[in-house]
Amino acid sequence: MAWWTLAMTKWSRWRQLSPAERRVFIEALLLLPVLALGLRLLGLRRTQAGLARFSRPGAPPAQPIPDAQRLAYLVRTAAAHGLYRATCLPQALAVWWLLRRQGLTGELRIGVRKAAGQFAAHAWVEYQGLVLNDRPDVAHHFAPITPTTGLPQGRSL
Fold first, then answer.
1. What is the pTM of this model?
2. Are 78 and 95 in contact (CB under 8 A)?
3. Domain residues of the chain, as ranges?
C-alpha cells in the first residue's frame, strides 16, 4: 500500500500546480534528455547556440509564468522524478533556456574545483545575482570559468 500513498501524494502535488507550472514541468521532462543527447553529440557551445535560436531574450512571455526560482524548482523536480535523471549541466541549460523563452536573461555558470586530488565541475544558473538551481553559496565551492552573459562564441567544446 506504500506505493498507493506515494502515487496519491504525487497526484495531489500535480493538481496543486498552476497550468503554467504544469506546462514548464512537462517541457522540462521532454527537454532534459534532448539536452543530454545534444551535449554528448554537439558539445556545450553548439547546444547552447542551438537553444538560443529558439528563444528571444527580452520578449514578453506568451502566458503567465512561474517566477524564476519556481521555474528552476520545476526543472529540478522533473530531473529527479522523470524517466531521465539529468545531471547539473542539462538542468542548468534547461533553466537557462526556459528563462530565455519567458523573456528573462539568466546567466549559465560553470565552475570547477579540485578537492582531495579530485577534479569536479558543476553548472548552475544565476538570475539577477540569485542562484536559481543550487545553493546560494555554490560559487564559493566552485570557481566559475564561463562568461556570465552572452552566447557561446568560437568553436564547440
1. 0.79
2. no
3. 19-144
